[in-house]
């Protein structure tokens, strides 16, 4: 057994202290506070120090890695008595992190591929999180086994994403991210059968693996897509997922279409066209927000219909913009959307009629799928198409006027001196704003003409 695996096992044992939370009640944080104090001020050397120490701990002669993990767990534990967070959320979050780390360390002994380590973290964390919730059920309220799997898998996917996108060893950030997600999902009170959760996991994981195998998504893009898909299936339904996966699949294949020519023209996506988490989130964050609002609508003085139209409209815009950019960039006659002057291919805000036709096709495709799966009326499909085209136009207008400009420039120097004033507006920001505009347009049009979901 290697040192990293032994250390991960020791951290997992510390994480297992969370299982006492139902018995300790408001004092659930106490064991972790004790561990943090011992790690930071008492254990300076010896076998225990070597077991838990990370490379930086040797320089400081203190187990700051363990102390940080324990303090984060203690802080999360306090959310239960202070703010009413369910105990199972705390237990599941701690065990997903510690169990996922242990599984990842075990796999790294044999395989060094990043994707293998990521999958191990997700699978190991999910199993540990389910176990924790089932144990909690003997002494405190806990979700059904089917929901326990959904909660644990969602937390593990988010934890893996945070580790990949930000800091691998930032346990506090990962732990609190998972805890807040699980708290939100628990508050939404979703319902799902055992068969439903199995199908949801198989379908979303299968499409994620296919996207990675086809090199249309990076590891972070794959994990982001699987997480978004799982939430769509459970909180919305398989019809919502059909629209989402059509965008992911269609957008990924469009990015690969004539990739060599795009690369020679300087228009290709990086990473050989594989889309990462930033790209996936920029195009699907609004849709994800819509499905969360849809799930919360029974608890709000709102109907669910506008959120379904907002969801479909945002994806119609994302699909329209992606196809128009990927197809239109192959032609040599772009014109700037604001002045109609000829511009070089790849210019922000440059459009071609071929790209516009491709974008219209993308919006129509999402609208037709909405007609089949949401379901909506033909008038609703037309509304989604119009919103998708509007989002595509907004994307081009924002690209022409604001993309690659510093934030401070937009406010005539009023933000001078602020840290973010020199940050440039990127393509992901423009994509997000365009999908948001399309979602608002779609929901507003549907409300104005009295459209409802069938």
From TrEMBL:
Major location (coarse): membrane
Regions that span the bilayer: 63-96, 117-140, 146-168, 180-213, 225-255, 276-296, 351-374, 433-453
Membrane topology recorded in Swiss-Prot or TrEMBL: Multi-pass membrane protein
Gene Ontology cellular component annotations, sorted alphabetically: membrane
Keyword annotations from UniProtKB, A to Z: Membrane, Transmembrane, Transmembrane helix
InterPro entries: DUF92_TMEM19
Origin superkingdom: Archaea
Location in or out of the cell: Membrane
Coiled-coil intervals: none
Record has Transport as a keyword: no
The keyword Cytoplasm belongs to this UniProt entry's keyword annotation: no
Protein family according to the UniProt entry: Belongs to the TMEM19 family.
Name of the featured protein: DUF92 domain-containing protein
Organism: Halococcus dombrowskii
Lineage, broadest ranks: Archaea, Methanobacteriati, Methanobacteriota, Stenosarchaea group, Halobacteria
């Amino acid at each position: 057994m290697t040192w990293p695996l032994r250390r991960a096992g020791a951290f997992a044992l510390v994480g297992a202290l969370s299982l006492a939370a139902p018995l300790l009640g408001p004092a659930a944080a106490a064991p972790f506070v004790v561990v943090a104090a011992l790690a930071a001020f008492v254990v300076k050397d010896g076998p225990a120090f070597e077991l838990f120490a990370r490379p930086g701990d040797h320089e400081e002669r203190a187990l700051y890695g363990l102390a940080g993990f324990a303090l984060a767990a203690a802080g999360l534990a306090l959310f239960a008595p202070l703010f009413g967070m369910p105990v199972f959320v705390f237990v599941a979050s701690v065990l997903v992190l510690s169990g996922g780390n242990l599984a990842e360390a075990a796999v790294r002994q044999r395989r060094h591929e990043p994707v293998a380590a990521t999958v191990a973290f997700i699978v190991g964390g999910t199993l540990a999180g389910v176990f924790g919730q089932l144990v909690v059920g003997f002494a405190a309220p806990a979700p059904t086994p089917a929901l326990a799997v959904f909660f644990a898998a969602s937390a593990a996917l988010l934890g893996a994403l945070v580790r990949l996108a930000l800091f691998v060893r930032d346990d506090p950030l990962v732990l609190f991210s998972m805890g807040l997600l699980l708290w939100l999902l628990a508050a939404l009170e979703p319902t799902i059968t055992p068969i439903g959760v199995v199908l949801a996991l198989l379908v979303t994981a299968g499409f994620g693996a296919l996207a990675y195998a086809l090199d249309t998504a990076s590891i972070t893009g794959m994990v982001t897509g699987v997480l978004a898909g799982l939430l769509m299936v459970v909180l919305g339904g398989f019809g919502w997922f059909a629209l989402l996966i059509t965008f992911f699949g269609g957008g990924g294949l469009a990015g690969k279409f004539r990739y060599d020519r795009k690369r020679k023209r300087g228009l290709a996506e990086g990473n050989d066209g594989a889309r990462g988490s930033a790209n996936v989130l920029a195009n699907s964050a609004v849709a994800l927000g819509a499905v969360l609002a849809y799930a919360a609508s029974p608890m709000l003085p709102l109907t669910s219909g506008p959120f379904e139209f907002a969801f479909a409209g945002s994806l119609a815009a994302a699909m329209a913009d992606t196809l128009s950019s990927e197809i239109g960039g192959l032609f040599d006659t772009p014109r700037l959307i604001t002045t109609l002057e000829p511009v070089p291919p790849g210019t922000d805000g440059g459009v071609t009629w071929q790209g516009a036709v491709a974008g219209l096709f993308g919006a129509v495709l999402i609208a037709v799928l909405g007609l089949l799966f949401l379901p909506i009326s033909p008038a609703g499909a037309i509304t989604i198409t119009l919103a998708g085209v509007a989002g595509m136009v907004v994307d081009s207008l924002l690209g022409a006027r604001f993309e690659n400009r510093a934030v401070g420039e937009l406010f005539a120097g009023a933000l001078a001196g602020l840290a973010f004033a020199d940050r440039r507006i990127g393509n992901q920001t423009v994509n997000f704003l365009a999908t948001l505009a399309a979602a608002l347009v779609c929901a507003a049009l549907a409300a104005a003409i009295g459209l409802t979901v069938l």
